[in-house]
Every structure is written in C-alpha cells, then in structure tokens.
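Schema walk-through. Below, the input block comes first and the output block second. Nothing else is stored per chain. Lengths vary across the set, and this one has 194 residues.
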Amino acid sequence: MSKVVFNTSMSLDGFMTASKRTAEAPLGAGGERLHAWATGSGDARDRAVIERSFQGVTAMITGRTTYDDSVPWWGADGPVGAARTPVFVVTHEAPADPPENSVYTFVTDGIERALEQAKAAADGGIIAMGGGSIGRQFIEAGLVDEINISLVPVLFGGGISMFGGLEDRHVELEPIEVIHSANAIHMRFKVVRG
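--- output ---
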C-alpha cells in the first residue's frame, strides 16, 4: 500500500514563502532562503535528507500554484528530472500549454481523485507531495501518513502560512526523526490516526 508523505521547508514562524511574491520571485522577497539547505549546502546531513526524500517515491502530487511557480525550472521531466516521476497537479483548470511529453497529469475533480490516480501510478511506492495549499487540504482530509518539515532558522513575518486554516482541526503527530544541520532542523512526523 502506498504511503503519502508531505515534504516542505518552512521558516521558524511557519511560512512556506516570504511576502512580496512575484512571477520572478515565487517564494517572495528572500524566500529562496527556505531551500538554501537543499540547493547549496555542503552539509552531508542536508544531502542525506534530500536523498531520502526521493527514495521510493514513485508518484507526486502538487497544487497548481506550485506547478506554475516551478515548471520553468522543472521542465517536462518534473522535479526529479530524468527519473520522470509522474506528477499529479490538482487544479480547477488545466493549463492551456503544458510542456510536451511531460510527466504532468492535471486533475480537476478534487484531491481524492488525484490521490486515487497517484496511488495507481505509484504501484505501492511512496507518494510525495509539496505546496502549502495542497498540503493543508490533504492534511485536513486525513490523507497524509507522514509530514516532513525542514525548519529553517529565519523569521519572515509574513508570506504563505503553512498551517493557517487548520485552526479547528487537531492533528496528532508522532515524532519519527530529527536531524540537525547547520542550515535547518529536519523533522519527520507520523500522522496518528484515530
């Protein structure tokens, strides 16, 4: 059976982006700081977290905003490049001009349908997801098995809040692992059911 894992980087004050987002700076002014641990770190612990985050992943789910912001860098092959892992994009409307021969499937009939399609593609492997809105929706619906947060030592004071909107929902988590590097505190949590 497939496991659904939500991966994200977050500021200490709970933001997935900084404020002042633009098309040129989709993570907001200075928001790329959230991913510096993953893109330029010489720390072996950070590299190990990156490697583990893709191990066993055979399908991915994201929202339309993450797709729109990321496809210029991902291209037709998606976030893992040559592995061409299928990516299911939850959206109200498919884009008019997706990359040709791409790994993207646009799902317009809800998160449950996206998960159903991702499970079929994953064939028992791990389904990874990212993006603030889509993560909140899946967590709120009880569809996430594990939450992995790379907590970055920065305070943004504004931006897109990771957990805003879950105020009326209590989600119990069991710590699995904590890895401390010079650039982030990487935390893994199992979602406790019932």
